[in-house]
Amino acid sequence: MSGSSVVGGVPPARPPSGAEPSRPEPPRTGLPGTELSGTELSGTEPSRPELPGTELSGRVNALIRERFAGRRCVVLSTAASHIAPVVEALVEAGAAGVLAGVADHATGERFGPGVTVHHIPVTATSRDGLAAAFTRALAEPPPGLVAALDRFDPERRALVLDTRDLPGDRLAGRQRYGHRRPEWAAFEDKTLVDRVWRAAGIPSSPSSVLPPRPEALLPEAARLDAGHGTVWAADTRSGIHTAAEGTRWIRGEAEGRRALPFFAGRCSLVRVMPFVEGLPCSVHGLVLPRGIAVLRPLELIVLRDQEHRFIFAGTSTYWDCPPDAAHRIREAARAVGAALRSLCDYRGGFTVDGVLSADGFAPTEVNARLGSGLNLDATRPDLRLDLLNRLLREGDAALLCPEQVEAEMLAALESVRAANVKIPLPSRPATYGAASLAWHAGRWRPAAGDEPPAAVLSTERSSVGDIMRLRPISPALRGAPMSAAAVAAFRLGQEVLRAPVPRLTAPRW
Asked: What is the domain extent for residue 248?
């Protein structure tokens, strides 16, 4: 998982920043005929309190100005939507110029005046495929990108802000700033994560790491099966796996044998854990020089198709984790942050993913990066989360107080909730459009007339195929998990948007 936990066992990593499909502007007209406002399409609750600048935001922005004012900057991502807040912040900080290199067909209007936009042509049919293709393009920059960089920055003094795991600290002769170090990225390999749990001193589910051979995997899977099957997760030999693409729920020997070619073709080792029924969730942390800031748990929306494959559909902060469980999850994350700092001098954002069940929280993976779903760019844009993370990685934010960072981010996450849920469509919809949905007595229905919508459902094109997207926007949805509501909304979308929707189920919680 940029990217997320599965319901038990080892979850898929969330998509790293830059690996998610692009977000085209959705159609403005709903079906049937409801005109949708920009607020309704935003994916967050429409009315939020004004959150003025604070002492913390003043310090963060002063550090950003100190580092970037007067410097040319290059920002690279698969999608313009992912880097728009960063580009805006650099312009406001007084950067001498900004070049935005993106895989989607963005224009200068996306970023405002004075920003140079360059299209990096890559194509793929999956999130992992798009991330891999973009990484290859940056590892060996194509002539068009090199020429654009040299026109923009002939002296090669610009700072490059990218999100890929590339060799070295330079890209096309320019310094990379705030990039992830290889020794940090190594802990995204799910076959290595037990080292983190041991260093953190936190309990975890039993697991084994084995080669993808039948004589090794099948007997061990049978031994670890606690009654609901096991979860197998590939190592990172073929790259970091996001959105469950390297993870399988295996129920019995026959399914295991069918899965063996999949794993043998992409990895050298497989991690096997018991499948645990429960709610996938994640907690973000920040490793600062003076301590660890830990935020509130959020829901990872991991659905299942008819073949029991995991579909990572997004994240939601609408869910309120029970207080006792939230305390335990946050303390586990604090211990993990300290362990990462001890193991590899880690700095910056990370996540701990796991499953919350009747037996408690079972941690399943570490993402050595900022995860998705916090929505702080919308609720506290003054904190400049991406640039703050880069400052931390470079050791340029030594005086920030972790308690203050934690308190202000927690307040923002509590006051405004957000969710962005999407699934791939198996074939092209009859039309691309949007519909307003009402929520009443635990059920969705098309919103009538001028009735305020509780969510917006849309069909859209993306860089990896057609998708259906759900944007909840009503405070009435606060508290409960979003997974089951999302499944019900997608089923309704088959009718109101005339779209082919796969049969999906939500985790039992």
From this structure: 206-275
